[in-house]
Structures are given as C-alpha cells and as structure tokens.
Amino acid sequence: MSDLTRREAIAGSGAALTLAMLGAGTAQAARSDENERRVVVLPVTPDRVAVVARVHSGEVLTASQGSERRSRTAEKNVAVLGLAVAKSARSRVVVEVAGASRTLDVDTRVEALRASELRVVNKRVALTNKDKPNKLATAGAVVVDARLQHPIKRMIKAAKKDEVDLEAVSGYRSFEYQESLYARYERRDGRKAADTYSARAGHSEHQLGLAIDVRGADALHELEESFKDTPTGKWVAAHAHEFGFVVRYQEGQEKTTGYRAEPWHLRYVGDDVARFLHERRDIKTLEELFDLPAAPGY
User: Fold this and answer.
1) How far is 138 from 22, CA to CA, in rounded Å?
2) Which parts of 108-250 are beta strand (E)?
3) I need a surface site. Which of 93, 103, 223, 230 has the fewest CB within 10 A?
4) For the chain, how many structural domains are there in total?
5) Whole-number Å distance between alpha carbons of 83 and 108
6) Contact between residue 258 and residue 293 where contact means Cβ atoms under 8 Å apart
7) Is-contact 104 121, C-beta < 8 A?
8) D-alanyl-D-alanine carboxypeptidase-like core domain: which residues (predicted)?
9) DSSP states of 102-123 as a string?
C-alpha cells in the first residue's frame, strides 16, 4: 500500500525464481517463441498455484490436481487460472490444452513461494518477517525485486515517449518498516480507517518487492483516487500491462481486497498474466483470477 508521507526502500534477501515449462516436456528458464504453446505453473499461496498458458486465443486450458479441476479460455493467446493443491508441499498438476496433456510438479513450500512472481499477499494471506526478495535492484528512485528493474525502466521510457513524465516513488519495504508505517497511520486515524488504505505488517505487497507506487513528475493528485483522471493516471491504466504490471486495487473492489481504490499502486505479475487481466475486464483482482477467497478484513 502507499506510504502517504516519506518513501523509503530497505534492502533484504530471499530466494530465486524457478519456472516449470510445458512444451517439449522439459524444465527450462528461457522464454518460448510467441507462437509456441507454453504452460507455467507457479505457487500463489501455500495451498494454491497459478497455471499460466501461452496458447491460441479461444483454446481452453484445463488443470487438475486430485478432485480439483479448473478450466479457462484463452484471451489474446493467454489463459490463466488458479488451482488448489496440497498445502506447503510438492504436488503433481495435470495440464491439458489443445488435446495434449502433461503432468507437472509444483512446489508450494516456503522457498518456492518466496521465489514466485505471482505470490499473493492480502488481509487473509500473510508474510513473515523473514520474507524478503532474493535480490534487490534500483529502478529510478526506488528499490525493488531485481526482476522489476528493466520493466520499470522500459515503462518510464515508453511513457516519456508519449510525453508523460512517470515516476516510481515507493518500492520494497521491510516487515519492520511496514510495521512502523502502519502504526503511524493507526495513531493518526485509528485502526478502522488505517485498514482501508494501509496494510498491517506482513500483509503488504511492497514487502514482496513486486509492487510500486507511481505518480507524475508534477505530483498532480498524488496518492489520491483522482490520480486516475490525470494524464499520467490514464496512461498507466492504458499501458501498465504492456510491461507486466496491473493496477492491483481497483475502484469498487473493496469487498474483495479490503482497500479503497489505488490507481497509483502497480503490482508486477509478468507479461502474460498482465495481458490476460487487461483483456478480461470482468476480472479485476488477483483473488478472482486465482479463485482465492475475498479478503476484506483480517
């Protein structure tokens, strides 16, 4: 969530990203050609995974584990779904697409979760004070998970080309910093009000290093819902997905996320998931996308 006063970035350590890919049936860490079918399974919570498929538009992705079975149709050559698996364990997920089937191993134990770019944290799913990005890097004025460094720089450069001066103003925050930040807001506004705009320690996406807060260089309507109506806010809404980001807390989703709208708060989910969410305008939260329970309160 946003730091409504002073922005800070604190360094830390964590675990590396691993990808399980489907295609030739082998594990690899390189991106496939745009026209090649590819499936990636990544942990989202200790008992749920995301299945992300790069397939042809209109094709149906189906995944199953035990009695759990989910399907979703591809949009713009991408399909994304959430699937329940054994908690904090290794599981085998059967993935079917275009008549082909593969069984993939997936790990939802703590080290695998820490490495996942799709890990979800909300008011029901918490981090510990030991959860930190594996590698941090500087992107402009903020420190983030190193995987965000180039997407942020490319996004700022693209905005500049469109005559929009975009700035990232808040990135990674440690558990301890979020704890002190929330306590400050609680003292000022009371717990009930603070919970609508600030995360308690262990519940902030900023601790993942996968979220940033942005503004225009003119700071017009900074950290206000009306930011969405500024030239910068409109550009972000239209183009953030091109760089792997989504607006995490959208208007009208308070009963799902527990937070008021934050058009400046961007969560990195990677190109495929961001593109899918941009096309599926009916799915507005990661909770809906991955079939997680709503998290309006702690």
Assistant:
1) 32
2) 136-139, 142-145, 166-170, 211-216, 245-249
3) 103
4) 2
5) 12
6) no
7) no
8) 145-271
9) EEEEEE-SHHHHHH-TT----S
CA 292, chain centre distance (Å): 14
* pTM (2 d.p.): 0.88
Q: Can you give the residue range of the structural domain that contains 164?
A: 136-289
Helix, strand, coil percentages, rounded to 5, for the chain: 25, 30, 45
Residue 265 tokens read as 């708060």
Q: 48 has which bridge partners? A: 45, 84
pLDDT digits (tens, 9 = 90+) for 2-51: 433 332 222 222 222 223 333 333 232 333 345 578 999 999 999 999 99
- Written as six digits, the tokens of 57 are 């538009």
Contact 142, 168 (CB under 8 A): yes
Q: What is the CATH number of the domain that holds 46?
A: 2.60.40.10
Lowest mean pLDDT among 15-24, 141-150, 235-244, 261-270: 15-24
